TrEMBL record:
<feature type="binding site">
    <location>
        <begin position="131"/>
        <end position="139"/>
    </location>
    <ligand>
        <name>5-phospho-alpha-D-ribose 1-diphosphate</name>
    </ligand>
</feature>
<comment type="similarity">
    <text>Belongs to the UPRTase family.</text>
</comment>
<dbReference type="InterPro" id="IPR034332">
    <property type="entry name" value="Upp_B"/>
</dbReference>
<feature type="domain" description="Phosphoribosyltransferase">
    <location>
        <begin position="6"/>
        <end position="208"/>
    </location>
</feature>
<dbReference type="InterPro" id="IPR005765">
    <property type="entry name" value="UPRT"/>
</dbReference>
<dbReference type="InterPro" id="IPR050054">
    <property type="entry name" value="UPRTase/APRTase"/>
</dbReference>
<protein>
    <recommendedName>
        <fullName>Uracil phosphoribosyltransferase</fullName>
        <ecNumber>2.4.2.9</ecNumber>
    </recommendedName>
</protein>
<keyword id="KW-0808">Transferase</keyword>
<keyword id="KW-0328">Glycosyltransferase</keyword>
<keyword id="KW-0342">GTP-binding</keyword>
<dbReference type="GO" id="GO:0016757">
    <property type="term" value="F:glycosyltransferase activity"/>
</dbReference>
<feature type="binding site">
    <location>
        <position position="104"/>
    </location>
    <ligand>
        <name>5-phospho-alpha-D-ribose 1-diphosphate</name>
    </ligand>
</feature>
<feature type="binding site">
    <location>
        <begin position="199"/>
        <end position="201"/>
    </location>
    <ligand>
        <name>uracil</name>
    </ligand>
</feature>
<comment type="pathway">
    <text>Pyrimidine metabolism; UMP biosynthesis via salvage pathway; UMP from uracil: step 1/1.</text>
</comment>
<dbReference type="Pfam" id="PF14681">
    <property type="entry name" value="UPRTase"/>
</dbReference>
<keyword id="KW-0021">Allosteric enzyme</keyword>
<keyword id="KW-0460">Magnesium</keyword>
Amino acid sequence: MAKVYVFDHPLIQHKLTYIREKSTGTKEFRELVDEVATLMAFEATRDLPLQDVEIDTPVSRTTSKVLAGKKLGIIPILRAGIGMVDGILKLIPAAKVGHIGLYRDPETLMPVEYYVKLPSDVEERDFIVVDPMLATGGSAVEAINSLKKRGAKNMKLMCLIAAPEGVKAVEEAHPDVDIYIAALDERLNEKGYIVPGLGDAGDRLFGTK
Ligand code: PRP
Ligand code: URA
């Protein structure tokens, strides 16, 4: 069964409050999403494997640790996932970035795929799928389906805010995928928006309406 990690770090919770606040403008919203993505990536990469290397410090020779060179990929779900990519790349700059374009049909709330471009060595990489919002879970489930269909084997899902419905949908469809979130909110409203949530993540990131 998938594990669900809710990051309760004070810095993440503080920044998330200003992300939620409706008077926060586009520039600040974007900066805060970027910062929270970096902080979440720090926690979500806790299990990266290390290997020993021999080095010389100015004082002595010693054995120390470096990352074991695992190939990583970041997959933003378009559009809003894009807002989390640079923040993660600050910590893992060698990661490749693939894109999955999905929008949620406003009537049916079902995800509609319109674009997929992944790194060519998809079978060899571990992926972090990113999207600020996990609402019904339809978009995340579909993005992970899309990745698996193309050969990806290991992935995590990282979102800022989730509704219980979204977490359940991902757990049921993809029990092998761990979920990393900054907040688990109360519920979805009748339009499929997370309550209290932050509104429309794409519109707030890109200043559209
Ligand atoms: C938002 C959000 C997620 C999706 C979540 O995207 O960024 O991708 O909704 O909802 P779900 O869990 O119910 O699928 P949207 O479809 O609004 O597209 P956009 O990012 O292009 O604005
Ligand atoms: N998509 C968003 O951008 N916000 C929500 O609350 C739900 C889906």
